Structures are given as C-alpha cells and as structure tokens.
Amino acid sequence: MFREGMFRDKVFLITGGGTGLGLTIGKMAGSLGARICIVSRKEEHLREGGHRS
C-alpha cells in the first residue's frame, strides 16, 4: 500500500513519539523516507532508545 520513498522531502512532527502509536508511526514514516521530529513530555522515553530504528 505504501511505496518506497513516498515521504521523501517530507517532515513529520510527531507528538508523543517516544512510545506507542507515535513511535510506530515515526518508524513507518522514517522507513518511507520522511524526516522525523519527535516531541515528548518525558525525556526518558526518548533517551531509552525508543526513537531509534
């Protein structure tokens, strides 16, 4: 359904991106070429490595 590179040159701003649905969407969009900016209320969620592919 999603073609390779379909989000190339696009930027995704994801709130709550350190866990759950936000993390999953970030990974999917990144794998399709998007640049990702993640915002989270809890810095530890980002530091735990959830933001890495």
Please tell me the overall pLDDT.
Answer: 85
Instruction: Estimate the global geometry from the Cα principal axes.
Output: elongated
Kindly name the structural category.
alpha+beta
The biggest sheet, with number of strands, parallel, antiparallel or mixed sense and barrel status, is: 2 strands, parallel
Helix content: 25-40%
State the helix count: 2
Alpha carbon gyration radius: 11 Å
The sequence of SSEs as H and E is EHEH
Strand content: 15-25%
As laid out across the biggest beta sheet, the strand order is 1-2
Number of strands: 2
Give the low-confidence spans.
none
* N/C terminus separation: 21 Å
Question: How many domains make up the coordinates?
Answer: 1
Report on the structure:
The mean pLDDT is about 85. The chain has helices at about 20-30, 45-50; strands at about 10-15, 35-40. The protein is built from 2 helices and 2 strands. A two-stranded parallel ribbon has the order 1-2. The protein is elongated, with a radius of gyration of 11 Å.
